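Moderator note: this is an archived Q&A kept for reference. The question asked for a predicted structure of one protein chain; the sequence and the answer are reproduced below.
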Amino acid sequence: MKIILGAWSGRNFFMPAHIRPTQNMLRKAVFDIIGHDLEGIRFLDLFAGSGAVGLEALSCGASEVCMVERDPGCVRVIRENLVLLKPADLGLKAEVLEQDAFAAVKEFARQKRVFDIVFFDPPFDQKLGRKALKTLLAHDILSPHSYIVAQYGRDEAIEDAGGRFNIIKDKKYGTSCLTVLERIQEK
């Protein structure tokens, strides 16, 4: 697969053989919605898989990207991709956590860590999209000007975000659904 936007546009990266990667069209759609210039943004990629979305965020200049993946083989590939692409050479911070996504969110809340954009793409067969959104809303890890970007299977529905987020995009792409939520600004 290739990075499609930003400083590393056109660069290849390694892909674990046993996963369903976020396809180019969908990755481009995500960044067309949230922006191509992510300078100063703290980005969290949950259920990172290959790390494709987190790598794309780094390529677009996100100052800090944390990729959370529990599969050791995927974690190894993400780390190989970071060695290949060298984000530190661009002054960017990349972190890979080999951990369950739900446990990671709870730990970030305990540490009082916040993110500006959270992307999650759990395995479709496990139908974890709704649980991932509820977990994010239950723990204070989202900045006041944040986005949640959810990719999930067509046979799952993402529920209301408790009146704290507006849905700014909700679209189907093949077997995937993409929902982008923007935090409602408090007055």
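Archived answer notes: The radius of gyration is 15 Å.
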